Amino acid sequence: MNKPPTLKLIALLLPESLSDQVKKEQLFIANAWGPKRAIRTPPHITIIPPISVTDAEENSLLELADQISNIAHSFTLHLHGYGSFKPKVIFIHAEDSKELNGLQTSWRKELLATMPHVLDQYPERPYHPHLTLAHRDVTPEQFKRIWAHYVEQHFSAAFEAKSFWILEHNQNAWEPEREFSLK
Questions:
Q1: Residue 4 is inside which H or E element, if any?
Q2: Which of 157, 182, 176 lies closest to 44, judged by CA?
Q3: Residue in 92, 171, 73, 181 with CA at minimum distance from that of residue 134
Q4: Is the domain covering 6-181 a CATH 3.20.20.190 domain?
Q5: pTM (predicted TM-score)
Q6: What is the pLDDT of residue 96?
Q7: Domain ranges of the chain
């Protein structure tokens, strides 16, 4: 019997010290205003949003990851300031760099060429890299209070993106499954 498709996410994970700093912000939001859902995912910058893949497609996904990791180079990624997608998402801006856009474009192009149906729910739209602090379980009232706190705050950090990850959803949270080093 075939196992059901699994959800996969392609992302950059943060180095431990920066990840810990972001987790503290997520916990601050959870404790001060209530939204906790963002805590269930390691702090990350999405390259390809959640896609559903079968066992057979998983092998193709891993092959694509190997191919992309062999041509993409590591790069410095700058994070700066806070932003929002009203009425639910508070995030830290990630620099819209040539390297990050190239990585996302490579992934999207290869997926469209090999298994286009996995992107059916994601129409072509501009890539907006960010690091989520709060999202799906934010009510409009919580959003107003959280955003009022962050709108005038400053944030600045940078890290060397040396790899990307495939994360798998375990029905409860996202877990890092496999790392792919960049050149």
A1: none
A2: 176
A3: 92
A4: no
A5: 0.94
A6: 87
A7: 6-181
